[in-house]
Amino acid sequence: MSIWAFLGWGWLAMAVLMAGLWYGQYRSRNAGIVDVAWAAGVAVLGVAFAVASDGGDPFRRLLIALMAGLWGLRLAGHLARRVRAEAEDGRYRALRESWGARTQPYMFVFFQIQALWAVMFAVPMLVAAGNPAPGPAWYDWLGVLIWALALGGESLADRQLAAFRRDPANRGQVCQLGLWRYSRHPNYFFEWTHWWAYVAMGLAGPYGWITLAGPAVMLFFLLKITGVPPTEARALESRGEAYRAYQRTTNAFFPGPPRPATRGDGT
Question: What is the mean pLDDT of residues 31-36?
């Protein structure tokens, strides 16, 4: 099957799924399910692409299928628990307020864009799985190492934040424990790092340069669109000066040592 056939069938499956989930959010008034579907969709597509790809080394294809599946299972599970336990994410509440009477048709388009993005982010997995070089090669193990560090770091960051939020004494406070001491968004940083695993495993193969689109596009999304900007806006609304002080002492994305607090920071 050609790469275009893979992408076409993948898009069709995701488009149908997102249409059904759009109707679900219409009934529930909670669009957070789209995040769960995106993570699960990328994972399922990645597994399907790796298994069905007939040009790549079988061992590498198996590794990528396992990596994509486990990554998506963890992320989708984490997001699903949050969607069930919390009110609709502030990003989507803001969209509803902005769109007004046009919310549902615009939301349908938004869900379909997520279907396209799911296919787009599965492409690096498809390209890496198509690398025909005999495996396992040293760069396969490098990819596994990057994947393991990224998955472990993102999981740890999510657990640390969840534990902080569960403590009633921390209500209205800013989490600065563990990984959150060195980055305001360590979960996003490790999510971005994860995409370098497929670069390592696929860069040397045919069309390997395409794998670079994974971390490049993810970095743009996280820093400019869906990640840091809306998250920081909501944090400033809810935590005010405490979060501004956190911004002054802690890197936004790439981890680094905290900067000294300035006078008046209250930290």
Answer: 92
CA angle 108, 189, 260 (to 5 degrees): 125
Helices vs strands, H then E, count in the chain:
11, 0
Amino acid at 204: A
Side chain identity, residue 218: M
Other Cβ atoms closer than 10 A to 96: 15
pTM surpassing 0.85? yes
Q: Encode pLDDT of 191-224 as tens digits.
A: 999 999 999 999 999 999 999 999 999 999 999 9
Tokens for 259, please give them.
Answer: 């900067």
Residue with tokens 């803001």: 94
| C-alpha distances in Å from residue 215, one per residue of 80, 121, 240 | 24, 9, 32
Q: What is the C-alpha separation between 205 and 232, in angstroms, rounded?
A: 39
Q: Two tokens at 63?
A: 């590794």
- Using omega within 30 degrees of 0 as the cis cutoff, is the peptide bond preceding 136 cis? yes
Of 153, 251, 214, whose CA–CA distance to 161 is shortest?
A: 153
Residue (of 255, 236, 241, 239) closest to 184 by Cα position: 255
Name, in order, each residue with C-beta under 8 angstroms of 6's C-beta and a sequence gap of 6 or more.
49, 52, 53, 126
